[in-house]
Amino acid sequence: MKGAEAGLLGSWRRDPSDAWSLREFGDVSLRFESDGSLLYTIRLPNKEQTMRLTYTVADGWLTTNQPSAPREHRVEFFFTSDGRLGLKNPPPAPTTFYVRV
Questions:
Q1: pTM for the complete prediction?
Q2: How many folded domains does the chain comprise?
Q3: Count H helices, E strands: the chain?
Q4: Phi and psi for 66 in degrees, rounded to 5?
Q5: Do 86 and 4 meet the contact criterion of CB atoms below 8 Å apart?
Q6: What domain range is 23 assigned to?
Q7: Which site from 29, 43, 54, 58 is most exposed, i.e. has the minimal number of CB atoms within 10 Å?
Q8: CATH number assigned to the domain comprising residue 32
């Protein structure tokens, strides 16, 4: 497993200081597993909605897919000096940040 992929492993939650992303996407958490599976959970006021995805990593790009409705989504990612995960949204949207939990 390469360094960037290994750095993704585990649980991440939307950075609480990322007001734009919280407003646009909600309270989201990501759980990356070593087998290439990804749990994407959205916390709503009265429930949680979880989607089971797959992911791959190559050259700083994260590619996800939902097997129940196949369609790849590709986003550039990076880690900040303070350990946050950044996902670069298509312009003009700002980068979305996650913190490790």
A1: 0.90
A2: 1
A3: 2, 8
A4: -110, 105
A5: no
A6: 3-100
A7: 58
A8: 2.40.128.280
